[in-house]
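#struct-pred

JT: dropping the chains for the assembly here, can someone run the whole complex?
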Amino acid sequence: MAKVFRSPARHGYAVEVSPFIPNRVACAASQYYGIAGCGTLLVLDETETGVALVRSWEWSDGLFDVAWSEANEHVLVAGGGDGSLQLWDTNNHSAPLRVAKEHTQEVYAVDWSQTRGENLIVSGSWDQTAKVWDPALSRSLTTLRGHEGVIYSTIWSPHIPGCFASASGDGTLRVWDVKSAVCRLAIPAHKAEILSCDWCKYDQNIVVTGSVDCTVCVWDLRNIRQPVNQMLGHAYAIRRVKFSPFSKTVLASCSYDFTVRFWDLSRNQPLLDTVEHHSEFVCGLDFNLHIPNQVVDCSWDETVKIYTPACLSAATHKREKSWSKSSAWS
Amino acid sequence: MHRLKLISGHLCPGGSAELNRDLQRAECGSAAAASGRDSPDDVVVVHGRRTAIGRAKRGALKDTTPDELLSAVMTAVLTDVGLSPDRLGDVCVGNVLQPGAGALMARVAHFLSGFPESVPVYTVNRQCSSGLQALLNLADGHSVCCRVESMSLQSIGNPGDLTSRLSDVEKARDCLIPMGITSENVAERFGVSREKQDAFALSSQQKAARAQSLGRFDQEIVPVTTRFVDADGKQLQVTVGRDEGVRPGTTLEGLAKLRPAFTPDGSTTAGNSSQVSDGAAALLVGRRSVVEALGLPVLGVLRASAVVGVPPDVMGIGPAIAIPAALEKAGLTVADIDVFEINEAFASQAVYCVEKLGIPMEKVNPNGGAIALGHPLGCTGARQVVTLLNELRRRGRRAFGVVSMCIGTGMGAAAVFEYPGP
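RK: done, full complex below.
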């Protein structure tokens, strides 16, 4: 049974589970479906009986993505429709720690790097650039240009330091090297816009993309001419894709078709299950890193849901060693 | 809005042919057009007819007074649909050259057609867009809007009573620039070469010749029987049922030989300009609720229109501004439109507008334009609507079309029509 948090008049765009606190979730939400109006950043705790609001902040434009700090359990960063990134602290109730406004259009993606030895933020914007920032958001360290369309997603590789992937409206998946500030790979992954990408937590060469063409494609970066897997099933554009932290072959996708789907690449028929508990576009999705098989999602129907899909618990494949923060990555 | 457009784009992708998208695609199509839903207040076109377009001063209609032309088309339209003229709410006539835009002439034509005195009439003059303007001026109930022009009998000569002070105000002065010079201005300022203009003109002639030979205009033309005075002064009776301006034998070499018509080293010639012509057209229009109550069919729906102002010295760029304005009002883009009827006042401005808006050439004037058919000033707008809707109907599926023209003294007008499907 899902635990539900309702945010009236705020439509969820992104959720992320805290890397430190197992029952804590952040959600970036916007007024008027993000088309106009302001935004709200919500910090929620799952309780025995439901979901409680810990903290919330208002922002003058819509908020489209959120990422928790990997160094400090109180800190998070959000990306806004006004092109700004804001650093928030759950100890500070009213105002952001810092606001950085460099992007000239909507910031649609923020991610905090997880590899040891570096503490960086990456942002992706509709202004077609990605920027890398120090954790204090003082100013951007690098700006990466190359995409010929809006950027929808920027995700750090969990394996390779200084490396992130980006998904864009130009139909390409790009892999970037921050130190040399170049694009190492540009894969024309889809003929339509790519709205999301994510890295496999167990294989540093595997990346998944979700596109407006309604397919989820898995790519091996060593051989980019065709995808390793192409999963059909969603009826509308895919808004977000996420690899499971507990399994090499399990991933989830959420879509404008109101559903969340779970896939297992090791099976002949990869679709495990379709969860239809939303009544609007599902935009945000994350796996809980601490609690195996728990998933959080958020939707334009003004709800955030925390649940454990049966298809994941029932999966019979051998579980990989659970990924935790203590293992060395680099 | 940018964000809304981006997200809507996620729902209507261009590429994916696999998966069962048929149902969704139709859904997306009507979501993209803000005007997808029919309302009883829609302005709809029921029917339209036009006379053949004759060459001014030398053609078969040169001795025909405009009231005769007007009367012919007004009668034809009502007879075709079987509507008695006393059901009309108003009549609006577009005209440019007659004194007072032909207000008296229009009332005369009215009675020549046997319309009852209870039906009023008025005229409108927005230069070349008068025809379209008459349609846009639609009042409630039923109206016939028509346009007529006899460029044989009246020339663009007398500008009226103007102050001498106008020479001190640049844009006021620019209103007097001859149209041919504005064409040269556009060609020069926007780099439209003589070759491009001639190629466009050739294309117009070829399309018109083909349309004529395929009989595409047969349905819309009302043959007019009229008097004609030949070179010896003898009076004859002739029946005019074919557009006279079309020259099927046009070649690029032939066009290239023509001398510039307006400036010694210009690029605008008689071959790549619209012709001076006589003609009339009439459209029966009304609010959907009234049309349906009378049991009349809907040929086309006016979805949006826009009239914009541009500098008088490059008046030809009008459609490049008016078309996006009208499309935006309709919630559509160039890609949604199947046919554009863009008046070819001059190849220079027509080419500029088509290229500026990125319109694929195959969508532009598929049955030829004013360069081949002629441009009877006040008549053109209605002629374009008639030809547009007939072409969309011939293609046999729901589609959108745009009618647009530039306007002397610096304006542009555009209207978006929907053919609802067979």
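JT: nice. The radius of gyration of chain A is 18 Å. Confidence is low (pLDDT under 50) at residues 316-330 of chain A.
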